[in-house]
Amino acid sequence: MAKIIVHGGKRLHGEVTIGGAKNSTVALIPAAILADTPVKFDTVPQILDVKNLQLILNAMNVHSVFANGNLDIDPTQIRESELPSGAIKSLRASYYFMGALLGRFNRATVTFPGGDNLGRRPIDQHIKGFEALGATVTESNDIIHIDATAHGLIGARIALDTVSVGATINIILAAVRAKGQTVIENAAREPEIIDIATFLNNMGANVRGAGTDTIRIAGVPSLKAKNTHTVIPDRIEAGTYMSMAAAFGDGVTIKNVIPEHLESYTSKLIEMGVNLDIGEDMIHVYKSDDLKPVAIKTMPYPGFATDLQQPITPLLLMASGESTIQDTIYPKRVKHIAELRRMGGDIDSEKPGQIRINYSPRLVGTDVQAAEIRAGAALIIAAIMAEGETVINDADHILRGYDRIQDKLTHLGAEVSIEGIDLINLMP
Fold this sequence. Notes:
Largest sheet: 4 strands, mixed
EC number: 2.5.1.7
Radius of gyration: 21 Å
Binding site for phosphoenolpyruvate: 22-23
Strand order of the largest sheet: 21-22-1-23
Distance between the termini: 20 Å
Number of strands: 23
Shape: globular
Pathway: Cell wall biogenesis; peptidoglycan biosynthesis
GO molecular function: UDP-N-acetylglucosamine 1-carboxyvinyltransferase activity
Helix content: 25-40%
Structural class: alpha+beta
Strand content: 15-25%
Keywords: Cell cycle, Cell division, Cell shape, Cell wall biogenesis/degradation, Cytoplasm, Peptidoglycan synthesis, Transferase
Low-confidence stretches: 115-121
């Protein structure tokens, strides 16, 4: 496992450019196998999840080349085959191959997905959608079998019981080449869903309503890529650097952002007293003093993102008073708390999903564990703020989701190194 070593106390300054959205990329890559032509993406983040998705593509005889943020995928010689369970279990988003394979072949066999341990995250809404489209779904020995070869996929009206980004995208992937019209009600509204719909529509799909709670998909017989798809900027990465800049920066400009995607987040920073200059595609975070405590409640988009709950936590340690976070999406997303306490943070969680953060002016570096991506991001921010050296173990989790993080932090003036992993071979 990789280690990230941070020598704290170096204030940040300068500018950082945000990469393509991880949460788009991990769905766009499986979506590419629906095409009858080669597919090209740019501004793809250089993260571990892309490498693992390439391993899955390779198992299906889908050739891919990734270099300098450009990803070329050729699914024209795709064949059904057993997918590598190691890569499947390394990231939860591998479940998008269920919808993509179902859309391509009318059947799919996939190992139950892995990813960060954030508590129970069932795929019952995905299965509900597949079954509504005419597929039978069975599970045996941790393997999911989905089959619609008898009659093919037929469009249907699907009302999701809960708002689910994963289920919304998976149903779109399955329905985009189905016969007839599919209507998804109570659909998730995240920007990444709009990104997926844009990619598919540019290949000839007919997906309408992405970004609203009702999405309509008219099935088409073929999808053909005609241009390069640019992945939208990563709003979670942007929010992470904003938290970092507000907590321990002397003026940081964050470039390649879509400010509208971050409104619920920036409104909380402004409420805290963070001074922001918000432009068309950039946000400048000024040095922050005299921060005020806030109450945060995570909600489905356009509410406060659960993925930004942990990255904002170190900043809340700087507010003069008690802040609270209620995570309604993943109540068990609290694995950063014990590690921040080890560093001197006054933070606890007495009830599931309820976090209390008090002013903690002095953090001290120590050995900590990154239990998952966003917990790791919180620890990096805390380590930059802390006195002395912090060693973040299990840092592979962080590298799964943050594009070229060592280079970006070093450019901002932080003292950061990574051990235990070959970054040259990892990131083209």
